[in-house]
Amino acid sequence: MATYTFTRSAQNDLRDIAIYTSKQWGRDQAFKYAGDLDQCFEAIVNGHIIEKAVSENTPDIFYHRMQKHIIFYQKLENNEIIILAILHEKMDLMKRLQDRLK
To answer: Domains in the chain, ordered, with CATH?
Structure first.
């Protein structure tokens, strides 16, 4: 059975998303959005989405859009998924992802 974990940077992304959402739209919306993200992580790990590779140079790194955020993840050979980043669509996605892969 596949599992997923978060890098420290991805954990920080989740925290920042929760704080921002709570401040902008309230605590209830922050909880709802966190739940939507959790469902998305489960769909990724269970193979219920169409995988899109980031590029030909990184065939093991994929992305999936969830509302206004893009989830970047890596698939390991042992069926483990590592969530690398959860970035807002308006960010410089490739630069931020490259910084995290260094």
So the answer is: 3-101 (3.30.2310.20)
